[in-house]
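A sample copied in:

***
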Amino acid sequence: MSSHVRVLLAAILFLFTACELRAAQNTGRISGRVRREDAPLAGVQVVIQETGAAEWTSREGTYVFSGLRPGTYTLILTLAGHSTTETVTVGGGSPAVVETTVDWPLSYAESLVVEAASRQVERVLDAPAPVTRLDANEIRRWSAQGQVPRLLASAPGVQITQGGLFDFNVNARGFNDMANRRVRTEVDGRDTSEVAVMGLTMWSSLAFGSDDIDSLEFVRGVGSALYGAGAFNGVLSIRTKPPDASLGGRATVTFGELGTIRGEARHAGALGKWGFFKVAGGYQRGGDFAQSRVTSVEYAPGRLPLEFIPLPSDHVTIAYGTARLDLPFSNGTRLVAEGGTAHTSGHVNTTNLGRYQNDSLNQPWGRIEFSSPRWRLQSSVSGEDLDNALSLSSGVGAYEAGYNLQFSGETNRAFRRGRGRLVAGASAGRQSVDSVNPEGVRTIWPERQIVNEGSVFGQADYAFTARLKGSGAARVEWNTLHDATVSPRAALIYSIRPSHTLRFAVGTAFKSPTVSETRLQAPIAPPLDLSAIEQAFSPVLGGVSLGFEHIPLLAVGNVHLKVEEVTGIDIGYSGVVADRTWVTVTYYHNRLSTFTSGLLPQVGTSLGRLNPDFGPYHPPAGVTPEVAAALQAALSRALPPGLAASMTNLDDGSPAFAVLSLGNFGKARTQGLEIGATSVLAGRFRVDGSYSLFDYALTLAAPDVALLPNTPRHQATVALSYGGSRLEAGVRYRRTSGFDWLSGIFAGPVPGYGLTEAQASYPLTKRLRAGVDASNLFDNKHYEMFGGDLIGRRVLAHLMLSW
């Protein structure tokens, strides 16, 4: 991005900051907070009776009105049919401060608010899409393993597929993959995905501790209207704790099976009257579930392919460090500067090309955010430096260096005395990635890849009556890898009675091709040596080199790929039963088209030559036509027919075998049922349960090419937890039916499995707490994707010191 653009963006950020601060100094303001039982109450609508201006309380229970003339105002505070008023006098000097404490008899769900479904705070009952939200207490309870995806194990409709110790895919509503990109993941609004495979999250390198997460929301269903290309089946939004909400410090030491040893620490404090800071870091070392497959495999012999080289390393190392600075201002404005880096080595990742083990992966990142009650501007950058990710199938190392630069801004407004709400925004970004190894050779792509993107989006909500609310959203997005796309979404939410709502939603989402899918040139096996043929022809080649001594066998991308599209319908119910049990039921029906296939044979199927850019092989121009014809005949005799037909020329004219590529084909219809329930019982017990049913039907353009959703038909979970004043404990069971898996070179059955997880912690002193966490408690060895590792038990113990 040019220096002129950077200067312009910095100027805009400064202008908005200056305007907000000037407004804070020169206009009357009301700054308020709403509490219930000494806890902040979010999602309360606050309307100024005299002006009709409206705000909603944040997660901290706060709200701000600015630009008010001196005078006396009446505030009307409303939530879930409950209401109260406050009278406040505004002068020309300091802001008027209002502290409101209510005793409204709210149920569990009436006080539960979410933000990711609409990019604004709202009651979960009013959200236009099904949402699962976990708060800091629930996250802390299940965070000892250091595996963020496991936190969602009880969420209805969410598939957590584990390929290795830190190799996870998080998906919903079918058509999973080794590198799933159908769920967009954000941390504090920052895209965390891998640079070359935008939408894919490397879970092992998220640079924060799990217990530093303040909230986690998973929105199921098509989400491109607000989040863009990656929100095909859902959105995962993670919010970390700001420094002023986690003052003090914590250090944790964890140890256990697989030789695991981990240390983490964080500290947050005040910088006088100016702001707050937080620093955190961690280091972990331990074994992995991965086993060598050179001479034998752990399961499915004869179907699970052998590998060319053994695992170079038998342990995984993870380290991270972060620092954050928050400057809050009195009018609700906040400036955040944050950055960090993560390092991993020895991590085994299963892809549709085979397994890779990273020698060294560094991922630095940073972000600057300016927010106020009406505006949010953010700039973020994520870098990646991958050294020698060794393909266990081919023995060839892959290298990658790049960055993902993103700018976004959004605003929100209320109208018609709070009956309507509007969110609108825009974003722009650039991804740049290269794959040069220390010898100057590109290992994955033939040249440096740069992708530019941009979008505008908006959503409007309006309460037609006290019971009926409508929501409409749309996004226009453009990208140098595909044509502009439009993603609309509309929803109706009807309250059949207090705390019971029905929801109907329809929308369209898309998944764009990536650099790896369009420009890939990666080895899938050791190169072939056909130098004997070249030597036999040397007398008639006239000194022309054929380059036959080292011919790579490649998987190649396809620049002609189209975007995948899905149109989905959701019908849902949400309600509170007996004041203690929160129940959600969702039926969905999706139509998917223009699938981007997994890696398929370049030739030999009814799809014909999958990628026309890699045509039949042509000998060098310096060879006579007679010799060229004889050479072609010799290659046909020496090679199997399929391999001979895949022989081609790269851009520089050198020979290669384009064995695999990608294409667009097939349509599918999916439908399913997602049921979830949470019951808060007396004595601080909580019971969570979920059930998911998935069904699909395919229409294939190529009957001899398979396409599978890689998703179980049935999945169920049940969890029981206890949160006492001292003891915290929980047990969770997840059962998944068997299904067939097909992704790239991996094709085979995944048997059904059941997993039990358990955790408990207890304070030894006022500041020291001990705990234990068991994953796969009964050591039910299983695999969750065909080609992934055999997953066993992992029991960890920890000591936590707080100050």
